[in-house]
Amino acid sequence: MNIRPIKTTTDHQRALAELTALLDADPAPESPEAEHAEVLGTLIEDYESMHFPIAQPTPIEAIRFRMDQLGLKQKDLVPYIGSPSKVSEVLNGKRPLSLSMVRSLHGKLGIPAEVLIAEADCPDPLDMDEHEFPLKEMHRRGYFPGAPKSYRDFRKNTSKWLSRFLGGNGVKETAAGYARSTAHYRDTKSIKPAPFLAWKTRVLHESEDRPAADYRPGTVDESFLDELARLSIFNDAPLLAREFLEKHGIRIVIEPPLPATDLDGAALLRPDGIPVIGLTLRHDRLDNFWFTLMHELVHVGWHLRPGRDAFFDVLDAPSHTGDNRDHLETEADKRAAEALIPARAWRSAEARKNPSPELVHRFARDIQRHPAIVAGRIRRDAGNYRLLSRQVGSGGVRKLLLDQSRSG
Question: pLDDT, tens digit, for every residue of 234-285?
């Protein structure tokens, strides 16, 4: 057995390739090759724990991540889980891992046992103190249908109203289920759990009332994003974008952030397979609306799936190099930027070198995009948010969409 320590990125890639080859050979249990694979998996696990320090994933996330690394398909997990139907049930969250599955996945694929046996580490809404919720603001916004209009009267029985809100009240699954969804968070360290839970529960409640067609997986691709971005040139483009997405089965909910939940957006997969995009519009500008919407749509088209069913984003947050979840956020940023302004056109754009309002408008006409999108890209690339402040479409987006939501 020729085992070398893993010290560099090159060593890590070599070890992954070697482990893949060993697994493809399907060595007999307790053979030298099987022992080699087990030791190699442990070395890979140790290296990754030191160089990629991330929040502990759920068991399904860990299994899918290792599948992605090794290029494994569902059928390749049969030797470790038991049968094609069991593999499908495990990856879709319908069957818990048995002790024998944990041992096999840990020993053969090098997935940490503590991850495979971990419970979902999301807050239980029933364990939260009602005083942790911004009840006054939630009451003002109408989170509690049927509750007294007077906040003083409402406070006499807040436990009942909060329990009803978090327990569903018309939503197909309980809020507790949503709270334990397998989620990816982009810099939510400063976000308090109770207001955050209230916000996402509200988004899912509201998604039930949005009129929309049936959703077909695979709908969102590059051409879909381009077609949507072309709508940006119209005066009522945010409304047209919402209509376009709901025509294709994607629910859009506008819900301003609650205190201590300075999110920009979220992409959620409901238990019934319907994707939902929640937007806070905390930056009431056209450029921000379009980038956030495209970013969340990339999550819908490329990242959401059973077992990975929620993304929550603060788009001006710093990235965390080495975090696999951040890799997905980086991909969403890149695909969103490409959909809004194709890289080939951007490289030769005169407005990029000389950011004047005239050149911004000329380039926007050439690529059939709203000038605010171009101005916003220039500001982000330069890191100077005082540039082109009159060209980014400040004000009006929030009112337009919220007024339409109330009337619709």
Answer: 999 999 999 999 999 999 999 999 988 888 999 998 878 899 999 999 999 9
Give dist(CA 298, CA 198) in Å, integer: 25
The three state secondary structure string of 184-251 is EEECCCCCCHHHHHHHHHHHHHHHCCCCCCCCCCCCCCHHHHHHHHHHHHCCCHHHHHHHHHHHCCCE
Q: Rounded mean pLDDT of 341-349?
A: 95
Domains of the chain, by residue range, sit at 125-407
d(CA 19, CA 15): 6
pLDDT in tens, 67-124: 988 889 999 999 989 888 889 888 887 777 776 788 788 888 888 876 786 543 344 4
Which string of b and e fits 286-322 if b means at least 16 CB within 10 Å?
bbbbbbbbbbbbbbbbebbeebbbbbbbbbebeeeee
Strands 310-313 and 265-269: antiparallel
User: Using alpha carbons only, what angle is made at residue 55 by residues 314 and 283, rounded to the nearest 5 degrees?
Assistant: 5
Whether 126 shows a pLDDT value over 60: the answer reads no
- 132-to-127, 159, 161, 199, 354 alpha-carbon distances in Å: 11, 12, 15, 13, 49
- CA gap 382, 24 in Å, rounded: 48
> What are residue 278's DSSP bridge partners?
253, 266
User: What is the helix (H) or strand (E) element at residue 267, kind and residue range?
Assistant: strand 265-269
Cβ(19)–Cβ(37) under 8 Å?
yes
Distance set, CA 180 to CA 118, 121, 174, 176 (Å): 13, 7, 10, 6
Task: Round to whole Å and give the CA distance between 111 and 118.
Answer: 12
